[in-house]
Amino acid sequence: xxxxxxxxxxxxxxxxxxxxxxxxxxxxxxxxxxxxxxxxxxxxxxxxxxxxxxxxxxxxxxxxxxxxxxxxxxxxxxxxxxxxxxxxxxxxxxxxxxxxxxxxxxxxxxxxxxxxxxxxxxxxxxxxxxxxxxxxxxxxxxxxxxxxxxxxxxxxxxxxxxxxxxxxxxxxxxxxxxxxxxxxxxxxxxxxxxxxxxxxxxxxxxxxxxxxxxxxxxxxxxxxx
Length: 225
Known about the structure:
Largest sheet: 5 strands, parallel
Low-confidence stretches: none
CATH class of the largest domain: Alpha Beta
Radius of gyration: 22 Å
Strand order of the largest sheet: 3-2-1-4-5
CATH topology of the largest domain: Rossmann fold
Order of helices and strands: EHEHEEHEEEHHHHHH
Distance between the termini: 44 Å
Helix content: 40-55%
Number of domains: 2
CATH architecture of the largest domain: 3-Layer(aba) Sandwich
Structural class: alpha/beta
Shape: elongated
Strand content: 15-25%
Oligomer: single chain
Number of strands: 7
């Protein structure tokens, strides 16, 4: 099966995780890190003590009981990682009938979406999927990408995020803005971030940015190099 790659905005969205074992904990943390509006956790066991920081968050709720059909009410996305095939299939079928996004961990045949392996550097996210055929290969590729994409990519992306609104505020043409953005990302600025060379980064920005933005260069690089 071919999957359609997509990044989902979870802001103000309800998410449900059924099963709070080690895998479930990782899924819960990933939902929180992705800005989920609320995360409801259901498990038949009491929450592990190490979950206390997560459960203290105002948008996280833990229910120690069996899953019930109406737990899906109001949920945008559901992740199930239980050891029960019956429960997993039940959740999968209910989500399908209700049109709720559903992931049953390590069982793609029960899923409406699968979670790719990812490499994250600040706001940069690189996702890898093998269409569920080989999680081991996805992990190998992720390891290779982790070695290829260092923290300098996070710094460059943060800088570009600061530069973009300033450039747009100048009222230049789209073509002119595009040329500046492409010049920057293809320049030696990435190397300057990697070596933490503030002087080189400053000089590159002076050469690439319109003169009205030159006074902004110190704040553009503040804390990044």
